[in-house]
Structure formats: structure tokens, C-alpha cells
Amino acid sequence: MQQVVIAVRKRDSEEVIAALQDAGVLHLRPITGGPLSTGSLSGQDAQSRREDERLLARAESTIAELGGYRPAPAPLRPQDEWERVVEDAAVPVSAIARQRQELQADLDAEAAYGDAVRALARLAGGLDRSRRLALVPFVLQPTDNLGELEAALRAALPDRYALTAETVGNNRVGLIATLRSERDLARSALGRVRLGELRLPGRFDGIPLADAAAELDRVRQGGSERQRALTAERDALARTHTPALYAVRDALKDRVAVHDVRAVSARGKYSMAMQGYVPAERVSALTAALGKFGDAVAYELHPVDEHHDLAVPVQLKNNGYVRPFQVVMGLMSLPRYGTFDPTWVIAVFFPLFFGIIIADVGYGLLFLAFGMWLLGKARRNEGWDLSFFGAYVPPASLKDLGFVTNVMAAWSILWGVLTGELFGTLGEHLHLFFVDPNLVNNLWGWTGIRAEAHAAEGAGAVAHSGLIPTLFPRLETEYFSNVALVFSLLFGILQVLWGWGIRIQQGIKHKDATHTWEGIALFGGVLALVMMAFATRAGKDFGAFGNFGDWRVLVMYAGFIAFIVGYLRVIKHFPMLPIELLSQGGAVMSYARIFAVGLVSAILAKLCSDVGWAMFTKIGFLGIIIGLVLGALLHFFVLALTLIGHIVQPLRLHMVEFLNPTGFNSETSPAYNPLRRLSPTASAVSGQGK
């Protein structure tokens, strides 16, 4: 990344900014302080900005009311026609939006109060038009006691009221009739028994009940058709005006961007200065954009100070397999410029951890189908409208999500073959997968486990049979749990040590002795704890401390020496480092989540398949249908219930246990966001401020 400072005559500033927009490479950085003006615009510049922002807001609100996505590009009208283009669309669209809003309010009122108002109108019997009497409507919940209300009314209005009620749906509605002058007494009686007067919303409030019922009947009969007609009118307006509106909206955004550039620049009476950053490989585009102005523009480029400048923007540069995983990185902050980009680590280990946790061929095929569906929408240039979440996923993001999902599915299928799981134990019931004790012992006997053959019930024959032998039988918890647990912890050892190794490398790179020695101390300390656990067999043989013929013991002592030396070098800055060492030991143990969450997932899937298979074996042909339906429903419920955890746990291990030692979470940089043009030509900003 290169830092650039640009000085230009004020009268040429608009053309220069337009050229920078066309180049699309300069990330601006605000200039603050100094002898020149900075910050908010004033005078004619401020007035011009307000006018542009007003028209832009009008265009955007109109586009939002039209409710459509971006259409095919349309030619940009001349600048003097922009306001007319916006107003020609805004006036009728606003009118239709207002009608739709009012009609929707009427439909909501009819849905909520229609039956109650019609019942109240029948109860009123025309008394709602009386000049002497007042009617107070109310609603009773099933638990409310009408007798308590009548007692309160007798106390407040003895012999000067009438009370009636009728059941409507699950509730009851009622009316109190009394003299108009005593309406407030009736309302007070309602309040004493914790009831309130029924008030209708909007335009129905205050009109006679019979009129309100008639209006709500008209809404019920014709409201939906009227809503469809208004929607059709809005869609017709969208087809007519949206292309031109988007063109004008984009041009107005470019004009507002010009004002924004001026606001973050240093401004004098005759000159203006800008500063920012440009990637080294894009410097040629910047120089080409500024070169055509000759001596009217002066600029200077020099390398950024990545050690001290915290404002240097970051642009992730990953290709091929790794690049789609930047969508996962979007859940985290960006790394600080000049430090470690963990995207490729996440691209390798995140789907791997997910696959180890799921480890089911059936579930993997479901994820593969979902990933292919996402890729299909992306190929058709379709987005995914998640309106219930208030979100819209564009085709480019769907393409990345589809790729990531397919990689996760591939690892799930591969590990499903290794664990012998197809929708839990369905593959075992179908004799597709089976556990061969001899094979398991040959593969894993060196760990001390011993797999035993299970005899078939009532016979001496061995029950193990099938097509594909299971190589990683995690469901055989009697003897394989420790192997699966240690296997998961190996990833923790790798990533935690790797994280502190990155800390050392970054400290050396940035000539930061404190972080270098901190990394050395904790790398050595964690390595020592790991070697101690292996050498003493998890604390079962502390006599191993004196066995200097064991290389693990030698590495352990070397690690503790590195920790002590490093700690003494940084004790002033990190006095609690021994506590942090214990915490890092816990970070390694956190990788047991891969084993634990995966085992729980496998056990739940096993139960689902076993329940469905039991229905088949006990009932016969009918049991096949019942078992398939019941098993499918249970699998769907379990997967939906646990899926978020299966995704979050691998992410957490990377975001916390792996990235915390690297310093990733404590230092960040802004994203590279260059000044770009939205409108197709530079004419969108010509003529302004001259």
C-alpha cells in the first residue's frame, strides 16, 4: 500500500475528484487540523450539498416505495432534468404508497376488530346514534368476571345503566349504555375491575358502531382486491420510472461523494489538499488519472508506515480456493495492515472441523444439495430474498456461500465414510457400513485400545458384516472415546502453538521485543505443558520427570526454560503471564469440543435411525412407511436444532483459541474502500461549482 498526498487548485477540484472516481483506486483519509479549513463545508458548497442530499433522499425513498431491485441500466438524463425525473415518479408513487398504507391499516383493523364491531353494532340496536345516551364498548377475556363489572356499575350508576355482552371467538364483547353526562362514571367502573374501553384505531375511532361495522364490511369485501389493484399500479410505475430513477440516484451519489471528498480534505481560498492510500499495483491507474491535468495537480507517493500508522486500509488478497472463505471472515474484524491474514487457515480448518463434527454421509449429501442450490441461483444471477430476516443475499455472495457449503459437505461425507455413519446408524442397519474389530485393532491398537467382536444374539457367530469397514468408529464409546478425544486435542496443540508462533514472527517483523518475548514465553510454556501431559500419561506417572532419556521430557524442560526467560523479559508488562499460561492450556482443551459436539450429534442421529428401524422390525411393511417418516422427521428436527452449534463451534475455536495469541483480535484496520463512480460517465458531476 502506498500513501499519497494530492494538491490541486480549488477551481479544478471537481474535475480532479471526478477523475479519481473514474480511476476507483484511492482510499481517502480525512485531514484534520492544520492551517487550512477542514471538516464541514460552508457557504455555497454547503448549500449545494444540502440540495443534492435532499434530491438524493427523495430519489432513494421513491425507489424504496417502488419496492423493486435494480433493473437493467438506463441512459442518464441531462442534469437539468434530474429533479423532474425524480418528482415525476415521486408524486404518484407517494400517493399510491399513502393509499396502500391507509388500506393496509383498514385491513389490519378489520382483521383485529371486525367481528367484535359487528357484534357491538348488533348489541347497540341503533342506540349509538342517540343524542342523550352514550355507549361504552369493552372486551372481556375468558378469565374476566362480568359480575364484578356489574357490581361496580351498580355502585357508580344505580339504576342508570344497561349492560349486555356477547361471545365473539374466544372472548366476549360488551356494551354499557348510560346517560351521555355519566359516561365518565361508566369508564371509571370499568377501570375499577381492570377493564378498559374498546377504542377503534384510525378513522374508525369516534364514529357510530353501525357506521364502523359498515365500513369494516366494505373493507372485508373489497380491500384485498383494492390492494392488488394498487400493487399493480405501483408495479407499472416501477417499470416506467425505476431505470431512470436508479441512473439519477447513482449520479446524485457521485455528486454527494464530491462534497464528501471536499469535507475530508484541507481547503484554502484557492487550493485543496487530499490524502489517502492506494495499493502498489494500482498506482499506475492513479498516476494515469492525475497525469492528464499536468501542472494543475501535484501529488506525492511514498510507502506507508505499517508499524505506526493505524489508518492504513486492508484489502484481502486471496485467490482460487481460499477467496470464497472471505465470506466467513466477514464475521470477524479485518486484520491490521502488515500482519497475519488468517483466511487461508480458516479455509483449511473450518470445513475440516465441521466435517469431523457432522461426519455423516447422509447429512453431508443434504448440505451438498443445499450448496448446489445456492450455486444454481448464483449462476442464474438470482439473489436470495430473506425478507423474514430483513436481508437480501446478492448472487456474488451466494456463489461464495455455495462453494463454502460444498466444501463443508465434502468433508462431512468423507468423515461419514470414515466413521461409518449414514443418517446415524442407518448405514449399519443396511449393512453398508460395519465395524471390523481386527481392522480397528490393527489401525489403533498402538494407542492401547482393544476392540472386541460382538456375538449375534443367541449364537456364537460374529455380528460384524457389511460392505465398507469403519476406520474411525467414534460411536464405539466403550473403547474408542479416548482416541477420538486425543485426536481432537491434537488440533488444539497445533493451532495454539501455531498462534503463538505467529505472535513471535510478527513481533520480530515489527521489531516489537515485548510481544516477541511474550510469544516465546507462552509458546514454550504451552509446549512444555503438552509434553508433560504426554510424558506423564496425563498425570499418572510423575516419576517420568527424571527420565532424561525420554525426548518428551527434554522438550518439556526446554519449554519451561523458554517460558521463564520470556516471562522475566516481559514481567513488567505482563505480570500475570503464569495465569495466562494456564489459560492457554485450557485453550488447548477447548478443542475437545470437536469430539464432544460431534459425538452428541452422532448419538442423536443414531437414536433417530434406531427409532425408525425399530418401527420397521416390529410392524413390518407398515413399519417401513412409519419408520421412514418418523426417522426423517426426527433427523430434520435434530439437524435444525444442532446445526448452528456445529457451525459456531469451529468458528469459535478459530476466533478465540487460535487468533487470540496472534494479536488478531486486539488490532484491526479499516477496510480498503476506494472512491468509485456509480454513474456511467463523468458528465454526472460536470458543471457543479464552476
TrEMBL record:
Pfam families per UniProt: V_ATPase_I, V_ATPase_I_N
UniProt-annotated location(s): Membrane
Its membrane topology: Multi-pass membrane protein
GO molecular function: ATPase binding; proton-transporting ATPase activity, rotational mechanism
Transmembrane segments: 344-375, 396-418, 479-500, 520-539, 551-570, 591-613, 619-645
Any one GO CC term of the record: vacuolar proton-transporting V-type ATPase complex
InterPro entries linked: V-ATPase_116kDa_su, V_ATPase_I_N
One BP term from GO: vacuolar acidification
Gene3D superfamilies (UniProt xref): 1.20.1460.20, 3.30.70.2170, 3.30.70.2750
Positions of the V-type ATP synthase subunit I N-terminal domain: 112-200
Signal sequence residues: none
Keyword Zinc carried by entry: no
Keywords of this entry: Ion transport, Membrane, Transmembrane, Transmembrane helix, Transport
PANTHER family reported in the protein's UniProt record: V-TYPE PROTON ATPASE SUBUNIT A, VACUOLAR PROTON ATPASES
Similarity-based family: Belongs to the V-ATPase 116 kDa subunit family.
Protein name stated in the entry: V/A-type H+-transporting ATPase subunit I
